[in-house]
Prior knowledge:
The complex is a heterotrimer. Chain A is 36% helix and 27% strand. By secondary structure, chain A is α/β, with parallel strands linked by helices. Chain A has one domain (4-250): 3-Layer(aba) Sandwich (Rossmann fold). In chain A, helix 3 (100-110) packs parallel to helix 6, helix 4 crosses helix 6 and helix 6 runs parallel beside helix 7 (179-192). The longest helix of chain A has 14 residues, at 116-129. Chain A is globular, with a radius of gyration of 18 Å. The two termini of chain A are 29 Å apart. By secondary structure, chain B is mostly helical. Chain B folds into two domains: 1-43; 46-296, MetI-like (MetI-like fold, Orthogonal Bundle). In chain B, strand 1 (55-56) and strand 2 (61-62) form a beta hairpin. Chain C folds into two domains: 17-59; 62-307, Orthogonal Bundle (MetI-like fold). Helix content of chain C is 77%, strand content 0%. At the B-C interface, helix 1, helix 3, helix 4, helix 5 and helix 6 of B face helix 2, helix 4, helix 5, helix 6 and helix 7 of C.
Amino acid sequence: MNDSKLVTINYSLYYGNFQALKDINIKIPENKVTALIGPSGCGKSTFLRSFNRMNDLIPGVRTEGSVLLDGEDLFKMDPVALRQNVGMVFQKPNPFPKSIFDNIAYGPRVTGLKDRHKLEEIVERSLRSAALWDEVKDSLGKSGLELSGGQQQRLCIARALAVEPTVILMDEPAASLDPIATLRIEDLIHKLSENYTIVIVTHNMQQAGRVSDYTAFFYTDETRTGQLVEFDETKTIFTNPSDQRTEDYITGRFG
Amino acid sequence: MSGRMIVDKAVKVVLFASAIISILIVLAIGFFIFRESLDAWAKIGISEMLFKSVWRPGQDQYGILAMIVGSVSVTFGAILMGVPLALGCAIFLAEIAPAGVQSIVRPAVQLLAGIPSVVYGLFGLVILVPMIRKLNVPGNSGFGLLASSIVLAVMILPTIASIAEDAIRAVPENYRQGSLALGATKWQTITKVVLPAGKSGIIAAIILGIGRALGETMAMIMVIGNSVIMPKPLTANPLTFFLSQARTLTGNIAVEINYATGLHANALFATGVVLFALIMIINASARWIITHDQRSSEKAR
Amino acid sequence: MIGERSSEITLAHTAKTRNLKTEHRVQKFWFSLMWLFGLITVLILILVIGYVLVQGGKAVNWELLTTPPKGGLSGEGGISTTIATTFYLVGLTLLIATPLGVSAAVYLIEYAGEQSLSSKFLRTMINIANFAVETLAGIPSIIFGLFGYVLFVSTLKFGFSLLSASLAGACLVLPTIIRTTEEALLAVPDDYRRGSLALGATKWQTLSRIVLPAAMPGIITGIILSVGRVISETAVFYVTLGGSYRLPTSIMDSGRTLALHLYYLAMDTRAFDKAMGTGAVLVVMIFLINLVINLISRKLTAGVRKVR
């Protein structure tokens, strides 16, 4: 695996005294889709949030080891700048109570961009990238909250794209959507991966199989401490896993 | 019907009657106060009362314009000083203060709300007025709009701060997360997402503060001077407006009602009607602003 | 188009020129200002209460609390009768307001739901009643005073008396009691009501034996809040109670509450030290009441946790 975009080295995370993640070593490749799968409560979302330091917002969180973005230690960077570079799409779509235009223009405006023309350009480009432009181009003034669930999620993706990240983190992005909307999101993820590094947490194994190039399997025992069990190309994980626990999970024996 | 069922039905009627009593009380208040004011409107006339500023009951002059200006001015001053402090406090408690500090500041706000108005008035009388008197401006007695605005600002602070804090806390957490994940700083998140989202609650808080300020009586009487004059700057400097003495609508009522008779008393009741109308208008505007804001927040800027 | 990244460097350019340092400094400035505002608020509290307690404390002694005011313009004497009057007024006002307010709240919460099936008249009456409670809550105290003056003092000829004052005061605190009782009733889980009705109890039996007892701590909080209100209030009583410094011996007698006495001391007799003393007693009373309310609500939430 060359061109590692994100690397963790002996990375552990604690909520107070409770260890949520233990000694994770992973190399996430650039411009590919990497899925994080595993039973619930094994720390996948916590791990995902490490890459944009959203865990910092939780009081009492402590980390060990290092997380590198393009070779640089994440924890030594300005978190605000980091989050511009590493975007996030949440499980439940969370558009702001503003117009579609203002939702997408929010990120660029926050970085200081005021030029109306440039903003309009960025909004159109982001909406096209997120496969939403045709549906909303005549109603950019409408509130983001008035869109359907699937549209809202694509709006949030467009919003994340507008700040031009190089990585997009997705935490079960289709979990609250109907099957058709889900397929549209999966299609979008596939197209986005040509230009962005995507890390996606999903509970849905079939989705992981459809959408990702690489898969990381997380597992936890009675201690509820999450560990990385296996990381490989998706087709290998799903057809010929090395670890018994991976095989048990894939074949549905638990989880 | 069994005995139990009869009791049940009887209770329902009694409880219903209690519920209706609040309607009766409001109607009664409206009726009696308006009735006592009728002679004033008839014999003195609306324009005479509302637009003349000379109030000399002994000489049959009943203009309350000076009192309207007094009430509005002191409320304006209180809002000017109180709202930034209260909103700052609300933002501080909701978004910035760590839990330990919150447990000190929030009870402090609640305690401020419980202090009786006469105690604030006394404090203003004994501490603020002598302090303000030291300002070397001719005609400055220490009493007046400045002292009362400060006292009033402190009195409405807890009202505005607690309601605004509730409104800010009610903003869904995932808006904040979404904003931070886009690379906004915490302060940008507060000003560009949280506060706009909580706008209607914050406005409601301020309106309630205004209503409270307009209705305050005793504390105002104690520090505002109560001269029935149209407040105006004491010197060429317009800021000395706030050193002018004044009288509020509420103060006018309270100070004279105990010995007023006949038309004089009617005029005081008419003052009450004006006060009531003023507060109703403000509450209605608040409701209009809030619904209008909800509708327009769905359009682009 | 879909999934595309821009080849133009519009935003990346801005990202490089984005002045994060300035943004962080701006945030630090505003955060410090907010800290300052929080601090100022606490300081104001300490200043006001501190001054009143310290200065007032100097004037408070056993003699002050047990001798009546000497009357006239001297401002001499104690405050014993005013303390008694305050208690009498609180008692009488709550005697009137509590049954009325609790009953109203019970109807509006427990019975108003069913009416959606029956007459439109009742539904509109209930809507009007809710609006009336809201309106009452916004009416300033002096208006209640004027109302009390017209109706109770003059028309019904009760004169300046505890009766007039407590009737006017009851109107003042009624919205508070109704609202807090409503909240307390809403907090009682529906499962309690359903369980009782399923056992064949009537609605009133369910209310009196299950719901109201469960809502009691919340209701008591509302009552105590109203106690605090009556103790602190002045305008409404100023025009209905009269100003007698003597001990009232019947409900038709006039009197002064602590708060009113403070006002008279400060404005009429200019006896500022005694006024401060009265203020200190008032502040301590309010503080104790606040404490009791906090203890009750803490017990309330602890009780709820146990049930779960």
